[in-house]
Specification:
This protein is α/β, with parallel strands linked by helices. The protein has 2 domains: 2-121 and 309-350, 2-Layer Sandwich (Nucleotidyltransferase, domain 5), CATH 3.30.420.40; 130-303, Nucleotidyltransferase, domain 5, CATH 3.30.420. It has 10 helices and 10 strands. The chain has helices at residues 37-41, 48-70, 89-106, 115-121, 166-176, 183-191, 221-237, 243-268, 284-296, 313-327, and strands at residues 2-8, 13-22, 25-35, 79-85, 110-114, 134-139, 144-149, 155-160, 273-277, 300-303. Strands 3-2-1-4-5 form a 5-stranded mixed β-sheet, sandwiched between helices. The protein has a 5-stranded mixed β-sheet with strand order 8-7-6-9-10. The longest helix has 26 residues, at 243-268. The structure holds 5'-O-[(R)-(carboxyoxy)(hydroxy)phosphoryl]adenosine (KG4) and zinc ion. 5'-O-[(R)-(carboxyoxy)(hydroxy)phosphoryl]adenosine (KG4) is lined by residues 11, 140-142, 167, 170-171, 182-185, 188, 278-280, 282-283, 310-311.
Length: 356
């Protein structure tokens, strides 16, 4: 049995978790998430400098609580991991320097984890997670990507958003509709009382230079603008704005686009398992639509556990344990942090000469 202490501070959640595995079974011993949502809500989005300062304030207490709840002494920990990329650089630095200092102090090996690999590792806590090559739809506030994941974590990005991420679109449309931050859960809540086919909104595509459209890529910026134009038109018409109907129509179109392109990609690449992870994977319309459409094509869907969709350190711990189990990967203490880094190069985080 291996035990890992993991730290996640890439955006606005300060999180520490102790995770263990026995063979293929991954277990959470503690997972403390201190959300900063309330601190950023008044600004309508994450303020990077404020987020980094909050991580500095919160991390010692979150760390103490995670150890206490797990009933594990720090000396019994085998590995220490932290998110090192991508994310807000000032925020990543707080978690990474804490993890590496603990490694130096307690003579523990260090693993730097790619945040998106963390998200896709949240699936390791669900029963019957896929063991063979699978397709991941990663939908969060910062990313919308289709990633082919090999048995040993060889990763290849097959599609991505060219502008706003799906979660970002939820947040921006939420703000436009006067809903609270973050927009995703707020839109989902109000959309329950709305008519999802009331308004027709565009399923934006990216043109291919060779002609036609890119099949597995996304664009949400045009959809956001279409909602803005609709809102302006309805405001000019006078009367009450049907916020619930707009929210439900927007949520339906986002889910349809994500489901259609994911299934097309899985079929074209002959992949029978689809994993859905990231903050937007908490959306119930998306979850239900993905299962019903994929089942028609005999594709199995594995959804991230609801409590592990948004940022948390347990998923970072699971990614670390997976790396140790299959590849015996460890990172250099010289590994720094990077705001942007492609997941296709995640394995280079375990090279003697780190990429950053
Ligand atoms: O994965 P995450 O915590 O952070 C990033 O790594 O970006 O995702 C946060 C995003 C936010 O944009 C939020 O609006 C969205 O996930 N989100 C949702 C839901 N819950 C969170 N979007 C749609 N429906 C939800 N229920
Ligand atoms: Zn995330």
């Amino acid at each position: 049995m291996h035990k890992v202490l993991a730290i996640e501070t890439s955006c606005d959640e300060t999180s520490v978790s102790i995770v263990s595995n026995i063979g293929d079974t991954f277990k959470i011993l503690s997972n403390i998430v201190a959300s900063q949502i309330a601190d950023h809500a008044e600004w309508g989005g994450v303020v990077p400098e404020l987020a980094a300062r909050k991580h500095l304030e919160l991390l010692p207490f979150v760390l103490e609580k995670a150890l206490k709840e797990s009933k594990i002494d720090i000396n019994e920990i085998d590995f220490i991991a932290s998110t090192v990329a991508p994310g807000l650089v000032g925020c990543l630095r707080v978690g990474s320097i804490t993890a590496r200092s603990l490694c130096a102090l307690y003579s523990k090996p260090f693993l730097g984890i790619h945040h998106l690999e963390g998200h896709l590792s949240s699936i390791l806590f669900s029963e019957n997670y896929p063991k063979k090559t699978f397709l991941t739809l990663l939908v969060s506030g910062g990313h919308t990507e289709l990633i082919k994941v090999g048995e040993k974590r060889e990763m290849q990005t097959l599609g991505r958003s060219f502008d706003d991420a799906a979660g970002e679109a939820f947040d921006k449309v939420g703000r436009l509709l006067g809903l609270s931050y973050p927009g995703g859960p707020a839109i989902e809540k109000i959309a329950k009382n709305g008519n999802p086919i009331k308004f027709s909104l565009p399923k934006c595509k990216i043109s291919d230079k060779e002609g036609g459209f890119l099949k597995y890529d996304f664009s949400f910026s045009g959809l956001k603008t279409a909602v803005l134009r609709l809102f302006e038109k309805l405001s000019l018409d006078g009367g009450e704005i049907p916020v619930a109907d707009i929210a439900a129509s927007f949520e339906r179109v986002v889910a349809e686009v994500l489901v259609e392109r994911t299934i097309k990609c899985a079929i074209d690449y002959g992949l029978k398992d689809v994993v859905v992870v990231g903050g937007v994977a908490a959306n119930n319309t998306l979850r239900k639509m993905m299962i019903s459409e994929a089942t028609k094509k005999s594709i199995r869907v594995h959804l991230a556990p609801l409590n592990l969709c948004t940022d948390n350190a347990a998923m970072i711990g699971a990614a670390a344990l997976f790396r140790i189990k299959f590849e015996k990967n460890l990172s250099s203490l010289k590994l720094g942090v990077s705001g942007r880094f492609p997941i296709d190069r995640a394995t280079s985080l375990y090279e003697k000469n780190p990429p950053f």
